[in-house]
Amino acid sequence: MTSTDRTEIIDTCTRMMWFVDTRDWTAFPTVFADSVTLDYTSIWGGEPWMQTPTEITAMWSNLFAGLDATQHLLGNHLVTVDGDSATYTASFRAMHGQQDRGTWTLYGTYRITLTRTGGTWLIDGVYMNWNWEEGDRQIILEAAGSTTP
């Protein structure tokens, strides 16, 4: 692994979260491969699923439109590279807020897999491992238009 690979991998994962927090839904899909595995089963149950960047953008932009603000922070970056495949692991804090309701904050780790395509690192898997939460989970459920996951 070169230091350039490491930097580009961390940057790609950081940009994914930055685009969510700034609601840059035009740039958001540019960090993804053609097909992405999403796994949020540690908090919501169910099974991992696959989506295209267009489908992820539609789902996440709709979800986050129901919130006044979010802040997704990644830290303790660990990167491994095997040829054109990489794994990025990081601790995260994800705050979701509504002015009149307060916040729901989630803590845990992300494992994000990437593939080098045409010289660019693109995300092909997002695996969230929830550790604990603070605040009102109903904030995110109501933003999603549901009262249950």
UniProtKB/TrEMBL annotation:
Gene3D superfamilies: 3.10.450.50
Domain SnoaL-like: 2-124
Domain of life: Bacteria
InterPro entries according to UniProt: NTF2-like_dom_sf, SnoaL-like
Protein name (record): Nuclear transport factor 2 family protein
Source organism per UniProt: Nonomuraea phyllanthi
